[in-house]
Structures are given as structure tokens and as C-alpha cells.
Design brief:
- By secondary structure, the chain is mainly alpha-helical.
- It has one domain (7-60).
- 66% of the residues lie in helices and 6% in strands.
- It contains 3 helices and 2 strands; from the N terminus they run αααββ.
- Strands 1-2 form a two-stranded antiparallel ribbon.
- A hairpin with a 2-residue loop joins β1 and β2.
Length: 62
């Protein structure tokens, strides 16, 4: 699996999918999902800060 998750990747990840993975692959998928979630959190925080007008110096983070 690529390090970048696609919509198709996510749509195929159900309980049965995870149960069929061997430990090494399960760890890789779990790490990819963690990175995906961290990226979404960063984007959400950046958007929230931009809406509040919080930036770095004279630049607003968007």
C-alpha cells in the first residue's frame, strides 16, 4: 500500500479487511491511518486559526 491513502483505500478498510492482514501489514496500515489523521488534524487547526485571524507576524496562515 502507498503511504498516501486514497478514497478507494479508505472505502475498502472495514473490520474484515483488518482481520485478514498479517501483523507487519497491519502495523503499516495503522501507521498510514495515524499519519492521515494527523494531517487532517493539522489542516483543521490551520483553518481554525485562519478563521480567527491568528497568523505568523503579518502573514495569516490559511
Amino acid at each position: 500500500m502507498n503511504s498516501k491513502l486514497t478514497k478507494e483505500d479508505l472505502s475498502q478498510m472495514d473490520r474484515q479487511y483488518f482481520q485478514t492482514l498479517e501483523n507487519e501489514n497491519l502495523v503499516e496500515v495503522a501507521c498510514n491511518l495515524r499519519n492521515f489523521a494527523a494531517g487532517l488534524l493539522f489542516i483543521a487547526q490551520t483553518i481554525s486559526m485562519a478563521r480567527k485571524g491568528i497568523g505568523c507576524g503579518s502573514f495569516v496562515i490559511i
